[in-house]
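Entry type: protein chain
Record version: 2
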Amino acid sequence: MFAGYIRPLSEDFAMHKYLNPLIIIGFMLLADAAANTPAAVRILPELIRAANAEGVAPESAPPATARTINITAEQRHIIKEIVLKAPNVEKAPADVDVTVGSTVPSTVTVQPFPTDVSTKVPQVKAHTFFVQGDKVIIVNPVDNKIAEVVD
């Protein structure tokens, strides 16, 4: 079926040029885990920097604006309905950056979700939130970064 197609040698070389270092990194990490030493932790950033210098982007690193919580359109509606109608919700100033992945300033008060929201949307049970205008901003309390913006 594919008998007439032979890949040029240069394609094979280019593929192996970047594949082999990744295999080596994998084996180093496995060996390091087995030996319980932090050598790979020191070496891995150097190898990533070297790969970047050659024009290879580390594909395993998530983008800075990656969402850390997945909620449906219906769940977004539930969150907005309950939170925005709650009487004791304090609103954040309009100048606060509400980009997913950004750190919440210490001047903003975050609070736990009401029980109704946590029951109906279990993904946010471990998260906190604040309100800005008519947006509900979901915050990961572990790193105090914005996980999602419900608008």
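Comment: The radius of gyration is 23 Å.
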